[in-house]
Write a structure and sequence with these properties.
eight-stranded antiparallel barrel, globular, single chain, mainly beta, 401 residues
Length: 401
């Protein structure tokens, strides 16, 4: 796990079915689905909800605009499809609107089925990493997370002021101004931000929440795998300390190259190969890595962002003695986790999230009377009774995201 697949915006603007040359294969089909944090509508007013299907007969043309709508507490992330990394069914996979066209007269491509999924991400006080204040029509500034334990404020009232997170929860977070010591509390339920001189001071209104996002960005990136447009993995760029990265060839045919980090923005990371006298730019907007003066280096396959207790979404656990994968816990909706046994799709237990901290998540299985602690400090899963007793180490964490 540990991964976030980035959108690939190189796209074919027209989805084509060959029906004239292969009539025995019939038409093609399109299936549009949504994950649990949103739904899909069409330009004809039809509600897809979580899923809808369209069958396209031989020679028939089809055009439809699909719109992804996030539920409260979530935001649209991207459209994913089954076409591979070289093309995309949507002109812009990161736009909530996706236009699909099918021309049944073109004799160049074979019939196929298109699977299109609207993917969303949950946004709450535990996962948010950007808060805009002001109004949606006129944003005055931002609080932005720039590392695991640091936020900055930009825009009106401040420029480049740094903050340390004091606390986070499902409904908001509190940031401490590193210069003045003031506390800024973002209340996502009320849509407001307050400020107080200290923990005991009466908070005063600061501004309204104009927008929130949980999009990861170049400020937090620490690993990228890359390859060609056919999905073949070729290597990785991985951060090894505050300044150095390693470019590793997956085939092992060349030695790893040490790179020096020179610049980060929300969208890019720029690295310097001093030995080869070249720059390498990781561009998260386009999904492309370039070198020198824009020369192609590789397509981004996957990225990795540091995960802590505030942002963790899934955990895979194993037998600590044998390493055998036993199951996993997945954050499936607000305040709810699902437990799975390895190799099975059925939910074994529904778990209530009761607490998050930087190094742990505490869950309760109320039906079975179990208390489960995902302990990132020990890389283990501790299990015990809800009512009394201290949870004891049970499983080891084999992976998480």
């Amino acid at each position: 796990m540990h991964t976030q697949v980035l959108p690939f915006t190189r796209s074919s603007r027209l989805i084509l079915c060959l029906l004239a040359l292969l009539p025995l294969l019939g038409g093609c089909w399109i299936k549009v689905t949504s994950d649990t944090y949103g739904e899909v509508t069409t330009d004809l007013g039809a509600e897809c909800g979580f899923a809808c299907d369209f069958d396209i007969d031989a020679g028939e043309s089809f055009e439809r605009v699909f719109t992804a709508i996030a539920k409260p507490g979530a935001e649209f992330e991207r459209w994913a499809d089954n076409l591979g990394k070289s093309i995309s069914a949507c002109p812009n996979p990161t736009s909530p609107e996706c236009t699909i066209r099918v021309d049944g007269l073109n004799p160049l491509l074979v019939p196929f089925g298109l699977e299109l999924e609207a993917q969303f991400r949950q946004v709450n006080g535990n996962t948010v990493n950007q808060v805009a204040y002001g109004s949606p029509q006129q944003i005055s500034g931002y609080f932005r997370q720039v590392s695991a334990n640091e936020w900055i404020q930009t825009g009106d009232y401040a420029q480049g002021v740094t903050f340390t997170p004091e606390s986070r929860g499902m409904t908001g977070l509190t940031l401490r101004n590193n210069q003045s010591g003031e506390l800024f509390t973002v209340n996502l339920s009320a849509g407001s931000i307050t400020r107080a001189a200290s923990n005991n001071a009466q908070p005063a209104y600061f501004n309204s929440v104009a927008g929130i996002s949980a999009r990861h960005n170049g400020q937090l990136l620490n690993r990228v795998t890359y390859g060609n447009l056919f999905g073949i993995l070729q290597g990785s760029l991985a951060q090894v300390d505050g300044e150095r990265w390693l470019d590793t060839d997956v085939s092992g045919e060349r030695a790893a190259i040490v790179l020096r980090e020179v610049l980060r923005t929300n969208d890019t990371v720029r690295l310097r190969d001093d030995t080869g006298d070249r720059d390498i730019v990781i561009d998260l907007r386009t999904g492309v890595i370039s070198e020198g003066e824009g020369r192609f280096f590789g397509y981004i396959h996957q990225t990795r962002i540091p995960v802590d207790g505030w942002s963790i979404r899934a955990v895979e656990f194993a037998d600590p003695e044998t390493g055998e994968i036993l199951g996993s816990y997945h954050h499936t909706s607000i305040g709810v986790w699902s437990e799975f046994v390895a190799g099975h799709d059925e939910v074994v237990s529904l778990l209530k999230e009761v607490e998050r901290r930087a190094t742990m998540v505490r869950l309760e299985d109320q039906a079975a009377g179990r208390r489960i602690i995902i302990n990132l400090a020990t890389n283990g899963i501790d299990i015990g009774p809800v009512t009394n007793g201290h949870p004891l180490p049970a499983w080891s964490i084999s992976d998480y995201e």
